[in-house]
Amino acid sequence: MASSRLPPHDGPVLSVLDMHTGGEPLRIVLSGYPEIIGEDILAKRRYVRKKLDHLRRMLMFEPRGHYDMYGALLVKSELPSAHVGILFMHNEGYSTMCGHAVIALGRFAVDYGLVKEPQSPETQVNIHCPCGLVKTYVEYTDGKSGKVRFHSVPAFAFAIDITVDVAGYGKVIVDIGYGGAFYAFVSAEVFGLDISSSKTRELVDVATAVTGAVKAQVKLYHPDSDELAFLYGTILTDGKEAFSEEPTANICVFADAQVDRSPTGSGVTARIALQYHKGHIQLNKTRTFRSGTTGSLFTGKAVEEVKCGHFKAVIVEVCGRAHYTGTANFVLEEDDDLKNGFLLKWRCTWSSEALGQWNPKVMQRHPSHSWGVTTNLDCE
């Protein structure tokens, strides 16, 4: 029986549109949020984190979402040239840049009227992200949108061949690159793993350990804002940094051990910046990047040399394709003990305090909790 009637509920109805880019989900919030207050995009990011984080948990966490759900909230931009402002959200909080989301949002902006008069063969959409203005170019032919490419904010190599002491693995040499967010990069082969054939769980454990080490031992800096100076995650690569016509593979583990299904747009941006810095790639030479999880592909190339503070930087073009998967209206009922969402975590280290609070069946995730429910499932 088809029906558009909403079920019994209390409070706001959150309407969303779901897409994916290379397998990585994107949940775009269409309505249901209150007004987002802030004089600029970073102030709006601070506001939702402080005042409206319960809505992020409601949309990203189970039972409406899942551990690896990703979201985008449309906001007003203070930049006259921007078609839309965006706040990104995930299982841990709010990121500053997301390439797979930008690719999806470019297509969404054209299809849903955020650009008044789309142009063929390509329509430009200016998306204001917390890291800055990102220009996207959406294929548009016979009223239909297609592939999307974007030009990044200035991307740069922050640190090359630095040594960090990784718990359980000893001293490991990593690079750190910025592509709208900071990532640590290291070949999976260093740990005896393979991007394409090793178990995802093993790759996640290694990447999480590297992220923890870099966060503890390396102080990051960004010329534009201290709010950009944090490590978003670790990207494990296949070690193939020298230019080749063949695809190079990677897997990104970000936020709270969240696994990207796509090749990671901001990660491709940062990896191209590192390769350019090392002399592995020249301007306008296109490389193909393959996701170690789904096999989906992005292309990337450095298109312009620029400066970012004292860093020698490049503008990177990343290209991919997004697809629609559906729409939904989400509600809650006040008498639902799990109304605000929960997460199941594959593995965790328990403190004595956490053990005293553990419910062996389910745990409702609270902002102050860093632990979750262990399962005996093996993630392939």
Task: Note down, in words, how this protein is organized.
- With 380 residues, the chain is of the alpha+beta class.
- It folds into three domains: 10-152, Roll (Diaminopimelate Epimerase, Chain A, domain 1); 155-317, Diaminopimelate Epimerase, Chain A, domain 1; 344-380, no CATH class.
- 18% of the residues lie in helices and 36% in strands.
- It has six helices and 17 strands.
- The radius of gyration is 20 Å and the shape is globular.
- The relative contact order is 0.16.
- Residues 347-380 have low confidence and may be disordered.
- Belongs to the proline racemase family.
- Pfam families: Pro_racemase.
- Keywords: Lyase.
Topology:
Blueprint: E1 10-21, E2 24-31, H1 41-51, H2 53-60, E3 71-75, E4 84-89, H3 99-111, E5 122-129, E6 132-141, E7 144-151, E8 155-166, E9 170-178, E10 182-187, H4 200-217, E11 231-237, E12 248-254, E13 258-259, H5 265-277, E14 287-291, E15 297-308, E16 311-320, E17 322-332, H6 352-357
Parallel strand pairs: 2-3, 4-5, 10-11, 12-14
Antiparallel strand pairs: 1-2, 1-17, 3-4, 5-6, 6-7, 7-16, 8-9, 8-16, 9-10, 11-12, 12-13, 14-15, 15-16
Pfam family, one: Pro_racemase
Subunit structure: Homodimer.
Catalytic activity: trans-3-hydroxy-L-proline = 1-pyrroline-2-carboxylate + H2O
